[in-house]
Amino acid sequence: MRKVEIIEKIEITGISSTGKAVGRKDDQVIFVNQGAPGDLIDIKIIGREKKYLIGYPIFFHRKSIDRTAPLCEHFGVCGGCKWQHLSYPAQLRFKSQQVRENLKKISKMRLPEAEPILGSVETDHYRNKLEYTFSNKKWLTQEEIKKKGLINKNALGFHIPKMFDKILDINHCHLQPNPSNEIRLALKNFANTQDLTFYDIRKQKGLLRNLIIRTTTTQETMVIVQFGEADQEKIKKVMQFLSEKFPRLSSLLYLVNLKKNETIYDQQIMTHMGKDFIIEKIGNLRFKIGPKSFFQTNPKQAYELYKKIEEFADLKGKEIVFDLYSGTGTIANFIAKNCRKVIGIESVPEAVEDARINSTLNKIYNTAFYAGDMKNMLSGSFIKIHGSPELVITDPPRMGMHQNVINALVQLNPERIIYVSCNPATQARDMELMSDHYVAIKTQPIDMFPHTQHIENIVLLKSKEYVQRS
Which of 404, 455, 413 is nearest to 437 (CA)? Predict the structure, then answer.
């Protein structure tokens, strides 16, 4: 049996970019789950790498003043909301530091004083989409392990971190407003009483596989049930139960997925009741959300994000704007009223179609959306057709922009670039690649995901060429 390693009286001095607390023993770095700067703790070591150790607190000699009681009963086991033990003001402070340190260390740009971080309007029940997994391999708590007798191994909840086949059964999730919890619990109870099979990921069989719930601030709800077997009689039984139990659902959909992964983007989705979409409202705009649509998961805070982008853009009405990685056109449609036209470029054709629908829905006629490879779209022929933009807004995925896209952007040389990012490290890396041509004018961190280490950041860049002229 491996000897338990305990390290005593370690002071937590910081938070890493991965969200773990950081302490040191001599020259050895220790990453600590559920630690907080200011803690003085004894740590049980659960992982050892060449350059660092991983552990968690087992005894507190002193607790940080930034600590607070976690809201959720599943905290520490569930893989989400890892910062619930930190007060919200402390979370915002650490996130601001994370942004500043990444930009300072990596970007090689002289940085302006950052705008104060914008905290989320709501810190719980803020998400509009959750995805739950059915499993016959329930993760057992210590209390359940100690119990004698048979235990129901069926679960409907979230994956245990780093365990693809273990699911934590969720009693109550504080991320999404009702009827999310009511739907999940009712469906799980119905499935158990009807002896319906929960999916076995190892054997690739079982009827009930996945549950997606989408809600809106306009009080619409979409439910998507993913089945792992094409048993039409049982599928009908499940869908009829949901439609009768929750008759006010806006959209009740299902699909049969016989693949090895749970992605739905290549699957046919059937409508059992209601519409095949729901409507969200941000500001004065309405957006159509289908089962495959990408949409900001914190809609109230998304409104604050878009208002800041609008403020940074400072449009006068005559500009051409390019919106890169435009998704379903939320940013493009939000700012369209302030400029001559917005050209959205996105690699996913389905998202481009959604963006066009959203423009039509809002009677916006000065937008155009195109699907294609970003670096190829920023070509001379494309510019000849649509004109050269005074402003480019770019909101890439977490890995940032490809080098070729940055090269094309520098070649295009717009007067201003607004760079929106959910990963300040890759944002800073891309800024460094543009540092010979652009200067940073404003930065604005915005918290979209309370109780996590994730942070959104906006940077306004100006071309050195244009700065010298003005």
Answer: 413
Q: Which residues of 412-440 are buried (b: 16+ CB within 10 A; e: fewer)?
A: bbbbbbbbbbbbbbbbbbbbbbbbebbbb
- Of the residues 72, 78, 339, 422, only one is catalytic, namely 422
CB 254 within 8 A of CB 224: yes
pLDDT digits (tens, 9 = 90+) for 396-423: 999 999 999 999 999 999 999 999 999 9
- Tell me the β-bridge partners of 47: 54
Q: What is the pairing mode between strands 367-371 and 391-394?
A: unpaired
Q: Residue 85 corresponds to which tokens in the numbers above?
A: 């033990």
pLDDT, tens digit (0-9, with 9 covering 90-100), for 44-92: 999 888 889 999 999 999 999 999 999 999 998 998 999 999 999 999 9
| List of residues 6+ apart from 299 with CB closer than 8 A | 128, 216, 217, 280, 282
Instruction: Report whether 324 contacts 395 (CB < 8 A).
Output: yes
- Whether 173 sits among the annotated catalytic residues: the reply is no
How far is 259 from 228, CA to CA, in rounded Å?
8
pTM above 0.85, yes or no: yes
461: DSSP letter: E
Buried/exposed 296-305: b ≥16 CB within 10 Å, e otherwise: bbbbebbbbb
User: What average pLDDT score do residues 447-453 get?
Assistant: 96
Report helix, strand or coil for 103.
helix
